[in-house]
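Protein data:
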Amino acid sequence: MANVITLKASEHTIKSVTVFKSSKAEVVRSFKVDLTEGQNKVEIKGLSSCIDPLSVRVSGLGEARLYDVVCTVEQSQQYGFAGHDLDDASELIRSLNVKKGEIEKRKAIRECEARLLLQYAESLKGEHVAPAQMIDFMQTFTIQNQKNLQEVSKLDGDLDALNREIAKQESKVKTKKGLAQGRVDVVVVADGEVQVDLVLTYIVNRAQWEPTYELHAKTENGKPLSLVKLHYRARIIQSTGEDWTNTSLTLSTVSGADSRAIPSLKPVKLSPQPFGGPKKGLINMFSNANAVRPNVMQFQQQRQQQPQQPQAGNAFWNSQTTGTSGFAGAFGPTQAPVRGLFGSQPAAGFAGQPQAATGGSLFGTQATVGGGGFQAATGGGLFGTSQAASGGGDVSAGDLVVPLPDEEEEEEEQFEELSTGEPIPAIAEPTTIVNETPVAVTFSVHGESTIPSDGIAHQVSVAILPFESTISYITVPKIDARVYLQCRVKNSSDYRLLPGSVRVIFDDSFASSTRINEINTGDDFECTLGDDPSTKVTYSRTLKSIKSNGGNFAETTNTTTYTTKISVHNKHTFDIDDLVVRHVIPMCEDKRGQVILRKPDELAKAKEGQILSLPDGLKVTWSKSEGSDGKGGEKEGRYEWIWKVASGAKVNLEAEWDVKVPGEYMWAE
């Protein structure tokens, strides 16, 4: 007969816990077990109900041999504070209630004794008791009442303490998340009596962690120090049903997936795109000729079956004079028109009739071009200059683009903008597919940690990392006439900073909160340290409008000149080395309007990312792109001045631009 050993999990410590990013955790428990010769059955009860039965591992048996391991989860009870008879809080509540009942009975006996003594005293009369006996009885009555009062008072104190403890345990039961109904039965065979350290390892669900940070920055004589400290912390939440008390805690970025396998490649086959399939819109007839030609030939056959009646001025289907038919005769020696960014739609003549096209520039003047049928139109320069182009030329086979015959209704939307520059591919596909190999990072929390199973986030410290930073003074006076301190921090540690929230503490006071993405070693991230009250900013904007009447045969135009003046006064006792003033000029979405940038000087001609040096050390540049849409400051009108301001100095900045629009009314931003 096997020797049965029953162990209660809550009475044994948890050796270590590793929390993964996939709502899983690995728990390692250790049990000291005295084995006898022969077969021993070790029953471990009170484990988490979230245990994964397939993840249970047993080790540390020494010379003993493992025969069987069975993991089960018992059904919960419907009544009571807890769902398992081995739940510690529930067992303690029941024992406290039993003790409470005993005390209440003792108190009732003492109270009954006091009542009987009082009733006996009231029954005595003078004719039945001698005076000497009465004195002795009164002494005895007083002493006995005092004993009863002391005993009842003590019992009342014990009852109050028990009631508080019961309420505390009941609160624990109510706030505890999860059940502890897991059970593992281990069958071990030993050659003799021996004590082993049985190690039980298993995976549980409903446990997770996320990184969080605190950036601490300080000042010296009012000037922010370049040295900052990042407090790397972790928020852990678990509701597994078992408390992790005084255990070694490890945090891992491994997903902890149930299975890992090398992915297998499947055959990839190419096939012609069916007519009217999911890829609707433009088809490049020559760059993918094999796939499109059957559809074009079928369309030509349908056209040939219909009566051919030439029409004057129809260059698209008038193919009898050229000896060609279908689409090729229509577009043979032509080029597709170009639409200007902020100008009018260029026009091109048919059948060799010259037409003039105008294209507006982004911040400049218009340009005029001319040429033969379907001549290319060239718009003005991006920022103030203009270019002219004329003449025609043959279009390469890869540049010819036509709409699908059955989608003429969508022709206007499909041909919104075409150019004869780079060939348009027949099927749009992403140019780059990137698969990055994940790198696992493991953090060991110093010391022992206690994380109860209450579903509440508990914060533990991972590390304190000193970093060097660069402080910039940034202002956006158009929106808020204040200067903000921006801290650019470089991750010079060996840690990879995971995505998480950052609370900024500046001079031991909360300054702001932000969120960072994944920051690898050597990368930078930015945080705002709050505003600078010792730097004063003023902002003013004026406008002047001039209306031009073009007469009976010309359009009326309205030109408005906007002037913006910004001043920054450094009242610090130290120089501001990196002052950034951000501003924006309006963009005209309607192609009838035009914006011409006058000041800052030469900014209209600058390219994206180019920094222009102006007198007195002033620099100006288009702002960097924000977001993943690829739009930079040049396309959105956002730019910034960069300057160094000496202590006590005041700098003045000025911007000016013209807005030229048709009509008698002003256009609003």
In short: The chain has five domains: 3-76+179-205, 88-175, 208-254+440-532, 334-428, 535-662. The two ends are 91 Å apart (CA to CA). Residues 3-76+179-205 form one domain.
